[in-house]
Description:
304 residues, alpha+beta, 15 helices, 44% helix, DNA-binding
Amino acid sequence: MPPKPESPRLPAALFHPAITLSSGQVFHWDATLDGGFEGLIGAMPTRILPSGSSILVPCGDPDVAARYFALDHPLEAICATFPSDPAMRAATDACRGMRIIRQPPWECLATFITSALKQVPHIRAMSFAIRARWGLRIETPSGPRFAYPPPERIAAATETELRACGLGFRAKHLLATARAIADGRIHLDAIASMPDPEARAALCTLPGVGEKVANCVLLFAFGRLAAFPVDTWIHRILSRVYFPHARNLTPKRLRDFAASYFGPYGGYAQQYLFHHARTGGLVLRPARKSPKILLRSPPPPHPQ
DNA sequence: CTCCAGGTTCCGG
DNA sequence: CCGGAACATGGA
């Protein structure tokens, strides 16, 4: 349905929803035919539609949307703090308007627990399966949607049921973490007010949460813009671009480098590098364990 | 068939 | 602190 003429309008001079919502920080939004997006912010049905230097909010609460999409982040100033090497500049140009959004902590944490060794489309599929099975059904103008189920709901599920959502070995981790939170052994809102190192350490006590997932939660839910998740892509980028001759890069060395090189908005820099590389802007061949050998002719058959 | 994916955990140097 | 291996599932 077309947006009503009186749709609330948010000023957003530098906000690119398509890049933001496809950049692998959140997984449950749908593009609409008119170039907008729809999804849930928590349990609030929301639709946004870019319109010039602002966005229309035909459905949902504009204030909630403004906070969720972090329209208060001073993007120009943030990008100005990035190091000015070629890779960083290219990524910054390619990702103009991408924002690090503020997700509800639990659904961010749970989703990234399921993300281990999965591709972005799989993470999305698992999120939808979990939502459809245990989430609150919410009617929206374009049909029903499902909120992410709270920890108590997942804590009451079985590992088998979670595996049926495609979680594999991640099912055990999500279940144990949901129970830790549902039982009150861990308080996410307490973590929200801790300094970065303490918050990171607290998150890492949860099953299925290591350095990388903890940093994703710090960055994508708690607005800790210096948090720098190192996944396979970022590992490749840092190795190839910044340590082209290093033999064995340890996680610790990459952490130390990232913290000092990318600065107070390292999380933004990380997300721009990640998305630019993942969308093909930075050509990075995956490191193969056994490099393929080019042959002039096909190898002869080799029956046993 | 093989390889890989927004990793974490557990184990032995 | 470091390197390896196991861990499920689905798509290329």
